[in-house]
Amino acid sequence: MKINIFKTEAEVLDGLAKYFVAIANEAIDKYGQFSVALSGGNSPKKLYGLLSSPVYKNMVQWSKVYFFFGDERYVSLTDVESNYGMAKKTLFEPLQVNAANIFAVDTLLPPAIAAAQYAATLHSYFAGGDMKFDLILLGLGDNAHTASLFPFTTVLQDESVSVKAVFLTDVKKYRITFTAPLINQANNIAFLVYGQGKAAAVKNVIENEPDIENFPAQLIAPANGTLQWFMDEEAASSLKYQ
After folding, report:
1. What is the span of the domain harbouring residue 78?
2. Is 153 inside a domain boundary?
3. pTM over 0.90
4. Are strands 173-178 and 2-6 parallel, antiparallel or unpaired?
5. Cβ neighbour number for residue 125 with a 10 Å cutoff
6. Left (φ > 0), alpha (ψ -120 to 50) or beta: where does 66 sit?
7. 44, 107, 135, 226 — which has fewest CB within 10 A?
8. How far apart, in whole angstroms, are the C-alpha atoms of residue 180 and residue 191?
9. How far apart are the first and last CA of the chain?
10. 20 lies in a domain?
11. Is 183 in contact with 138 (CB distance < 8 Å)?
12. How many CB atoms are located within 10 Å of the residue 213 CB?
């Protein structure tokens, strides 16, 4: 695990954008394509806007990038809460990404079937081999969840390399999420975290004793890939060693 701490939010975003470009170009040079699983929520919205800005948009051959989603809210793809919808507005449309390169979760299906179908989509993309993404982007909630791996949900104990539906009892809504074993197969995993509001969660995940029920992001520990954190000084402020 490598922890990258930047002074400001803007520097965090720029640092992760540079990392994204480097990993993308490395994969394209090596394999002829780049597979990435995007995260949702507020933090990555600015990252996607930066990647599609004049500064970065010409640094990657976007026609060779294939986009997936590490988790999705169980809402219409046109809903304001949709991770796909957010990425479409901030990344896909500005970059004019070919629709064939984008793999969205079909949220018109029942949750369990949507998850199973998305798992089948991944199997097809990886031609039945190991589902090893070149890069998976993750955020961190203030309750230490990542993707849709929330505290005290059954998916935390799921050892399958797959995609599952999760019902969140507090909000009475479903989410679709990669399991931790699937995330951990990736060649590269990057957390994007900034703001003082995330400081406690960062400390709990990185420095506290293992307690995946309370701190699900502790599940992210790739056996063979690289794990990097990109955070600002505020998010890192509670860490003992910076």
Report:
1. 2-230
2. yes
3. yes
4. unpaired
5. 15
6. beta
7. 226
8. 14
9. 13
10. yes
11. yes
12. 11
d(CA 80, CA 61): 29
Read off the DSSP letter of residue 74.
S
Reported as a single tens digit per residue, the pLDDT across 121-171 is: 999 999 989 999 999 999 999 999 999 999 999 999 999 999 999 999 988
Among all chains, which residue has been given the structure tokens 């309750």? 143
Inside any domain, residue 120: yes
Residue with the two structure tokens 């999705």: 72
Task: Output phi, psi for 35, to 5 deg.
Answer: -105, 130
Q: Which helix (H) or strand (E) holds 42?
A: none
What tokens appear for 127 in the block?
């031609």
Count of positions (residues) in the chain: 242
Split into its structural domains, the chain has a count of: 1
Q: Per-residue confidence at 241, pLDDT binned at 50, 70, 90?
A: low
- The amino acid present at 92, given as its one-letter code, is F
Residue 73 lies in a domain: yes
Q: What is the CATH number of the domain that holds 18?
A: 3.40.50.1360
CB 18 within 8 A of CB 54: no
